[in-house]
């Protein structure tokens, strides 16, 4: 649909008109979908649909096979991109977060506020 309109505009403007090659396919025509329609929850490419999900953080516990449930859904292509960070920066951030969580845990224990204690203990153990 989109590519047909581009081709029509080229023909109207006289661009790309040649008696020998006006009806031949270009490389872009072979690999490009017939149309592209972006909807709220999916993208339609030609006759098929595609959905994209992004995971911005890893789960609390990562084990072998943690992506198996996604693969077992069937018809799924998966791409994983992991960005490494400098060791010094990671250590600094983790120590800072652990110190904040441990301080909040101590303050909550001293004040008698027990509603967040299990959550804070889990955070300290994770860090």
Nutshell version of this structure?
The protein has 127 residues and is mostly helical. Helices cover 44% and strands 7% of the residues. The chain has 2 domains: 2-52, no CATH class; 87-126.
How would you characterize this protein structure?
The protein is 44% helix and 7% strand. With 127 residues, it is mainly alpha-helical. It has a 3-stranded antiparallel beta sheet, with no helix packed on it. The longest helix is centred in the C-terminal third of the chain and has 25 residues, at 87-111. The chain starts with a helix and ends with a helix. The model has no long low-confidence stretch (mean pLDDT 78).
List segments where confidence is low: pLDDT < 50 over at least 5 consecutive residues.
none
> What is the arithmetic mean of pLDDT?
78
Q: What spatial order of strands do you see in the largest sheet?
A: 1-2-3
Characterize the main sheet: 3 strands, antiparallel
C-alpha termini separation: 52 Å
Q: From the structure provided, what is the oligomeric state, counting identical versus distinct chains?
A: single chain
N-to-C SSE string, H for helix and E for strand: HHEEEHHH
- Which shape, going by the Cα principal axes? elongated
> How many domain regions?
2
Which range best describes the helical content: under 10%, 10-25%, 25-40%, 40-55%, 55-70% or over 70%? Answer: 40-55%
What percent strand?
A: 5-15%
| DSSP strand count | 3
Q: Give me the Rg, rounded.
A: 27 Å
Q: How would you classify the helix and strand content by structural class?
A: mainly alpha
What count of helical segments does DSSP give? 5
């Amino acid at each position: 649909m989109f590519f047909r309109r581009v081709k029509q505009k080229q023909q109207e403007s006289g661009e790309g008109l040649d008696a020998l090659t006006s009806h031949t396919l270009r490389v872009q025509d072979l690999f490009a979908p017939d149309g592209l329609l972006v909807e709220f929850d999916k993208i339609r490419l030609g006759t098929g649909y595609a959905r994209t999900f992004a995971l911005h953080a890893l789960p609390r516990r990562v084990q072998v096979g943690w992506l198996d449930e996604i693969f077992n859904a069937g018809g799924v292509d998966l791409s994983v991109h992991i960005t490494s960070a400098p060791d010094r920066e990671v250590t600094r951030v983790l120590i800072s977060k652990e110190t904040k969580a441990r301080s909040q845990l101590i303050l909550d224990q001293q004040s008698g506020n027990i509603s967040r204690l299990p959550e804070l203990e889990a955070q300290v153990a994770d860090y």
